[in-house]
Amino acid sequence: MSSADQITNDALGAPLATKSKVLETGASLAQVSLSLCSHDWYHVWFSKIDSATQDFSPVKRICAHLNAFHVYASDPGRCVEANHYCSHLNEGSADRTPLFEDVRQCLIYDSPEPNARIIGIEYMISATLFKTLDAEERRLWHSHVFEVKSGMLIMPGPNGLPTGVWEEAETREMEDVVGLYGKTYHFWQVDRGDKLPLGQPQLMMSLTEEKQCPGFKEMVGDRDRRFRVESDVKKDKRGYIGEPEIHDDADSMWKKTSDNREK
Question: Is the whole model's pTM more than 0.85, yes or no?
Answer without folding.
Answer: no
